[in-house]
Description:
Elements: E1 15-21, E2 32-39, E3 51-54, E4 63-68, E5 71-76, H1 77-86, E6 93-96, H2 98-101, H3 107-115, H4 117-123, E7 126-129, H5 136-149, H6 155-158, H7 163-170, H8 178-192
Parallel strand pairs: 2-4, 3-6, 3-7
Antiparallel strand pairs: 1-2, 1-6, 4-5
Amino acid sequence: MSSYLYSSLPRKGDHIRLHRILPNKDKAAPLRCKLHNYSLQKLGTQTHLYEALSYVWGNPDETLPIRVDGVRFLVTINLHAALSRLRDHSFERIIWVDAVCINQKNKKERGQQVQLMAKIYGKAHRVIVWLGKEEVHIEGALEAIRLAASEESPEHSKKKINKQAILKLLHQPWFQRIWVRDQTNHNYQTTLT
Length: 193
């Protein structure tokens, strides 16, 4: 297990931790990261842009190590793959990721942070959805969705849309998460009324 010791978050205000992925030109190099506390209430020129990662944890028993502030920290294989893909070769990447930024062993903190998740995602510069390692059917599905959404697309092109690829994409574990399904149903019902 990871022996990382989290610093306490201030009790007042909406404080979170942000995860800085340190750059490396070598894609195979171990992942090195740093955590720092951040206030969601800060506004103005001192505000940092951060990204938020939405993903499926995967099997908690299948882990790989990263280094957080120099300390070995175990993450699921799926998260390791996402962080490896997101690491830049030259620049730090600032990202919020629940499995690392929240002290998962501290129930009180975990509960408080879960209450802030809508705000965390809402204030993010960008939300990244990690569906897993690239697979050909996913790439085909995204292209099919772009084609279907294109207003310039002639009607006969829409008949060639790969519906099977789209269905495979929608069966990915990320789309099966309860909050994703609830949000999708809510948005769908809102559009219909």
